[in-house]
Design goal:
Layout lengths: L4 E6 L2 E6 L10 H16 L5 E6 L10 H7 L5 H20 L5 E5 L2 E3 L1 H6 L4 E5 L3 E3 L2 H5 L9 H5 L1 H10 L3 E2 H6 L5 E3 L4 H13 L3 H17 L2 H15 L3 H9 L1 H9 L1
Parallel strand pairs: 2-3, 3-4, 4-6, 5-7, 6-9
Antiparallel strand pairs: 1-2, 7-8
Helix pairs in contact: 1-3
The chain binds zinc ion (ZN).
Zinc ion binds next to loops.
């Protein structure tokens, strides 16, 4: 039924996994559509109490599928890009944030840009000791970060600035020390420990849990969370038509990515 994700239910826990390990779990259009669909399926299934978001293979996700973007969306107008990114990047991400059931991102290896955005929409984030986080797109692609500026809310303002200004990787240990990651596990124990944590949460009365999640999320809303994210989405769209961005794209996305690694 699904091609680019794997959907599994083990007891009270649903797992939705990026399933393109050959492409470092790059998020294609289809993958994002399926992830959104699977999330809806997990919400509808009364047996599911907790949802894990993860990735098959060595990495959580290297981010949006830029090869697909170059192939299919290179000539998008402002209007087309707005529609595409509002639906697949912004709305889908916020649906994870607003999911009425508790969510856990389970991260190993790379968790980059679009992948970083998706993982941080989850209530909890757990990582293996080899995991790393990065959002290099300001530096490498001349875009104003990714579409959902979740960074300051989960990293603190000062760390978020350095993270975005330099594009550098943050290790699982550092992410844990600033409170962005709940737990770091050995790579070999990541799956079993995450399942254990999910099953523990699954023992909490679901309606009370749903209500406390609403209140916790509204604590951010009261601080301007949604207004700030919406404002950034507009600003991000502006960065897609800047001279800097257009110049980068003219030289080729692949080159920009390589320059970022250097
Ligand atoms: Zn964008």
């Amino acid at each position: 039924m699904y091609h680019d994700i794997e959907y599994r239910v083990d007891g009270p826990v649903a797992s939705i996994l990026h399933a393109r390990p050959q492409a470092r779990n790059a998020e294609s259009s289809r993958l994002l559509d399926e992830l959104d669909q699977a999330l809806g399926e997990a919400v509808q299934d009364e047996a599911v109490r907790v949802i894990i978001l993860g990735g098959q293979g060595d990495h959580f996700s290297a981010g949006h599928d830029l090869k697909e973007a170059q192939r299919e969306r290179q000539d998008f107008t402002v209007e087309q890009r707005w529609d595409y990114e509002a639906r697949r990047y912004f709305d889908y991400a916020l649906r994870i944030w607003d999911c009425p059931k508790p969510t856990i991102a389970r991260v190993q290896g790379a968790c980059i840009a679009g992948g970083f955005m998706v993982a941080n929409m989850c209530d909890l984030v757990v990582a293996s000791d080899d995991a790393f986080f990065a959002d290099p797109v300001t530096r490498t692609m001349s875009a104003a970060a990714v579409e959902v500026l979740i960074h300051p809310w989960v990293m603190g303002l000062r760390r978020a600035k350095e993270f975005l200004y330099t594009g550098e990787r943050m290790s699982a240990a550092d992410a844990h020390s600033i409170g962005m990651v709940n737990h770091v596990f050995a790579r070999s124990e990541l799956e079993s420990e995450t399942q254990k944590l999910a099953e523990k949460i699954a023992g909490t009365p679901p309606f009370a849990l749903k209500l406390v999640k609403r209140s916790l999320n509204r604590t951010f809303d009261a601080q301007g969370f949604r207004t700030a994210l919406n404002a950034h989405f507009d600003t991000h769209q502006l960065s897609h038509v800047s001279d800097e961005f257009v110049g980068m794209r003219r030289e080729g996305l692949a080159g920009a990515i390589e320059r970022g690694k250097a």
